[in-house]
Queue: 4 jobs
Job 1
Amino acid sequence: MKVAIIGGTGYVGLITGLGLALHGHDIICMDTDTRKIAALNNRELPIYEDGLAELLKEATDRNKVFFTNCLQTAVNKSEIIMIAVGTPESTNGETDLSHLIQALKLVANLMDSYRTIVIKSTVPVGTCDLARTIIKDNLKNRFIPFDIVSNPEFLREGNAVRDFLNPDRIVIGVDNPESAVIMKELYQTFKVPIVLTDTRSAEMVKYACNAYLATRISFINEIAEISEKVNADIHAILESMKLDKRIGGLYLNPGPGFGGPCLTKDLKSLISFASKAKAELPLFKAVLERNEVQINNIIKFVISELKDIRGQKITVLGLSFKAGTNDTRNSPALHLLEKLIDPKIRIHVYDPVVKSIEEPLNSRVSFSKSIEEAVRNTDCLIVMTEWPEFKELDLETVYHLMRNPLIVDTRNIFPYNKALSLGFRYKGIGIGIGIACADNSNGTLKNII
Ligand code: UGA
């Protein structure tokens, strides 16, 4: 099928376009960002994402994708128009739909015959109805049939290519059976369940999923905090919880709180549009509040451990909001830096892919070229993301490089008992400081059992 993706160089748009191209469709990725279009035409990627370079090569080698900044070409040469423009958070927590509205108006002006218009961007419930009105109004007196479809995405950064190619399910919201037939044809080569529903329910699915994932993370972070206080071990707790089939093991890793451009934004948006619908959502407000507590607890701990922070060197490993991406939007690491920066301390940072951050933070920290340089003579090492190269660090070497052997491991990536035995003062998330884990690394307890 011929598909145009508006916002086709963005995260969701590009992966969707290239993924559909791999499934044999003819894709036009359209974007107003001429720099990114030029880069993609040179086979250069505007974003860092595992597996995307291979996908781009495959799609371009097969001649299945075309990049343009001409909306007219995109509209004229496609049967399906997918809109994947950004829907950022506006100041009051609402979703800013201005890019989407603008795209819909322009598409309506250019349409000359039937089109299926698919909303991929994450949008508040009811936006498909709004889209229908916008298209109708902007067609003016021309009678051109069209359908609006909701088709939310569930891509995780760092895993987005795999998520697109092997989804758990595809959700399609339609208000007309004919567009359901078209959408099923688009996805017919994906051998996964297709959930067909109305547009409002499809829009809501996305919020329900992100709210649930965020709730699990805040839940486990709260259990971790209690565990620290009562000297219980989060590893053992998790091991047991994960074996309960009703609970399962995913999205239960305690950490510095959820970050990134989606979970927080979507929860705020959900709370905002629910409030307009007269639903107050106390649970989701608490999930967001709990998330703030996480970074504050880490800061409190560091300050209390270092006592007099004057002249101390603090090292932060990891700047993106999680491993596998260079995205620093709403990154817990950046929130930590914002609160930690003080003229009295020196902060050194290292990240395998992020080599600069937003100002004014960028000029207030020193970027180290290597982990070794970052940890040399440091008084406190804070690990903020779970990059494999951090996990593989030789703790003994780190111990000898540091001036004061204090580690704050917000992702629980290091073998806890080994760190203790080397002489580190070591804080993970969900284990009382200095308390040896029951599930210890040499497996003594397991062997006894
Ligand atoms: C999230 C959802 O997982 C996707 O399904 C959704 O499509 C996407 O938002 C979106 O709305 O576009 P993403 O934000 O890329 O994806 O990343 P996640 O892997 O979900 O991680 C979000 C945050 O939660 C990260 O800061 C991560 O470190 C944290 N996290 C995740 C934990 O602290 N513990 C966990 O167990 C899992």
Job 2
Amino acid sequence: MASRPFIVGNWKMHGTRAMLSEARAIDRAAQRLMQVEIALAPPFTLIHPVRREAEQIGVGAQDCHPADGGAHTGDISASMVADAGAGFVILGHSERREGHGEKDKLIAEKAAAAFGAGLKVILCCGEPMEKREAGKAVDHVLRQLKASLPDTIEEVGERLTIAYEPIWAIGSGEAASIEDIVAMHTAIREFLVKTFGEEDGTAIRIIYGGSVNAENAAEIIAGDEVNGALVGGASLSAESFMNIVLAAQDVINNQS
Ligand code: PGA
């Protein structure tokens, strides 16, 4: 568990300007919960409005293109989302890997572009159920991570967050067990320390995603090597999202 848990709401393809009231309510509540780092990743269309209205929370994008600009109809570059007010970008989400055929190499290129534009990166990884049942979940995730990271990242530390999201747990209502989460996060931590050295490798945050809700959040966030949560469905209303943030705050209070 981190000294300051990082709780990120991934709104996916949800939200029109009518949802700005939820972002405002989250931001207002966040101002009283400074022991937790809170961020939202709304759709591209809401990045600027959310950034303009929110004072406390981080705001990020859910994807970016690897190029800085050019003839790429319908795409959005890292520098564009930074210009709109994003401070980070989620990359390699399984919904993009599956729905858009994104491969590890492309994700590594996107990550390099995002770092180049001054954004932080939340890099997602996670195994399908067949790999878990075959006892190959850790191998799968570490291979995926290795291939989805750019060759060099300067001063990586907190600029990179890894989100472990088992595919079968996303949106299913069934989170992974705390034992499986801790085992995976521990393996990811070892990989990060080996790859980036002790200081950076321990500063990179590893957060869990996949059916996190107010009921299971405390147990998950208190887990060893769990530095926060990436929350989909339960981030769509201020009430359910803030209940997760409150659970994270309780975990911090209970340990001190
Ligand atoms: P979920 O989504 O919380 O709805 O399972 C998590 C995610 O996909 O980031």
Job 3
Amino acid sequence: MKFSNSYSQLDNVFYQRTSPAQVSRPQLLLWNQELADQLLLTEDFCRDKALLAQYFSGNRIPDGADPIAQAYAGHQFGSFNPQLGDGRAHLLGEVLGDNGLRYDIQLKGSGQTRFSRQGDGKCAIGPAVREYIMSEAMHALGVPSSRCLAVTATGDLVFRETAKPGAVVTRVAASHIRVGTFEYFAARGDLDSLETLTGFAINRHFPEIALNPDLDLSQRVLQFLNAVIDKQITLIVNWLRVGFIHGVMNTDNTAISGETIDFGPCAMMGIYHPGTVFSSIDTRGRYAFGNQAAIGQWNMARLAEALLPLIDEVPEKAVALAEPLIRQFGQDFELAHKLMLANKLGMPSLPASGSKSENSLGNDLLAQMQDQELDYTQTFTRLTLSLENPEQAEKLSHELGPWYGTWRALLADENITDDAAKSLMAQTNPQVIPRNHHVEAILAEYEQNGDSGEIEDFLTVLRTPYNLLPQTPKFQDLPADGDRHYRTFCGT
Ligand code: AMP
Ligand code: MG
């Protein structure tokens, strides 16, 4: 494993240099060989599972790694906290992947740091396995996401409501720079560090901006903000496409890379309802399924605010330059969302004629799904199937009433063949998602036995979510209670 550690070469205001805690009996529970290959980890390195458990529990530091805990701030549920930071994570360093891009390798649950506040720095096995399952599922669904290389049991207990077995999860991300990282320096008035961070993030994520010699600082920062906004829009549209509810879209959990990070209270929506919330602490529904775009925009406004001093030293002028970008989020999101819904219904572009009924087709279906309490994923897979299966078409036409005929007529009007529609829909609408009841059943097994008989099948199925494997039907069933009693908790 060859580390390059560009973040730890920045000034030490960006992080605390600190080692992970020692654990008693490290044991490798989950290992992602496909990801290890993409990160160019050698066969030699990957061969010895006991040694991997030492490395990815934090007991041994791989050669060249330089562990740090990163500093950041963040708006949590709307309130600013100037001092968060990695309270239970250690960035080991960065490696170059087979695509030439740099990836952070971070341990989470690896012990206390200067940023731990009251926390124990640990992670229980359940949240660690949840992050592994959910991030792998998201990646396979085509949603930008951090990934997991490993889950290692520590052999130590972690004290939550009860004592639980502890684990360390190894997270891989394009970077761990967050909106909250910018807020950290902006709040301290440390403009030098803010500028350094912005330059670092531009080099890492948007080299095309860095390489443009014609831009002054203000222009570079505005282009950066715009590029981050575009990535957030793509991210959230993809969340809505597959029915993902992040659950804790605080600015410290919003990665500049546009990847999904932090899977603590996340969940999948079953029955369609924009107000769906599962997180026990989100009592007012701030992070409800249908609120995610508005919150994404709000988070981008916080990033813009943090960047203002780099845009212009006269605050009013800086605001005048940044504001249109934030406003544009709304329009761009709406367009991207419409197109995504059109794709889910087999249309490669928005209907050319754009009559009223055509434009509202997707939203009409959503309204009907909400009214009739239909499952989001299953409704779209049934619609896809109905294009080749007259019996399913008959059933849906009965269940959905006139909407069904309107949809089929519109496809015909647009000269979209059933085959073309079916193929687009099959790529856009997953056959299987990590349904909450299946995820929870597996986490419960891990908590009780440190293992699960189902995990391999579940991961295999989730890794090809657009194809039916022989094992897929085992994980397609709906929860008996429609998830009405389902609750999730932050990973703390
Ligand atoms: P999260 O809600 O997981 O995004 O975490 C918010 C903040 O709390 C971050 O600064 C975390 O590092 C910190 N944190 C969460 N859990 C723990 C823990 N068990 N020990 C120390 N810090 C934690
Ligand atoms: Mg977090």
Job 4
Amino acid sequence: MAGAYKNTPPAAEDKGAMTAENLAAALAGESQASQKYLAFADVADAEGFPNVARLFRAVAYAESTHARNHLSVLGGIGTTADNLKAAWGGETFEIAEMYPAYDAVAKLQGNESAQTSISYALKAEVDHQGIYDSTLKGLEGKKDLGATAVRVCPICGHTVIGDAPDECPQCGTAGSHFVEF
Ligand code: FE2
Ligand code: FE2
Ligand code: FE2
């Protein structure tokens, strides 16, 4: 990919409830396509097809531009303070309502893999909620987040500011595998 290009997506426009619903559905679909293609790229790499992997990554990027444009028209991109509040709200919904309900259904249906996947997500969303909360408080005092690295478990998404633990407390992955941002 070439160097970063300053993204100027289409401006927010509030015209038509059905159009908003359609764009929200398209945002979900494009976001899913982008994620799927990134996962497919990793498979292609593992199977020894690096150029197919490259194609998947390129199209994933294209789909992410579509998702971002739809989000922009829906008015879903604000200032960093707005965005932190929106991000905190999304994580809070997932922790308080969405994943507990999904976990109950997965338990009822005896789907253990789904319970594991949901549990990994729910625990990481708690990390994210806390980090967004403290970051927002700092921003209200006009302070950027410190330069300390953010580290993420590649298996469960457990997220920490600073050093990785010796072993992920949620899934047991060695801290040396954490991805640094
Ligand atoms: Fe697309
Ligand atoms: Fe999250
Ligand atoms: Fe983990």
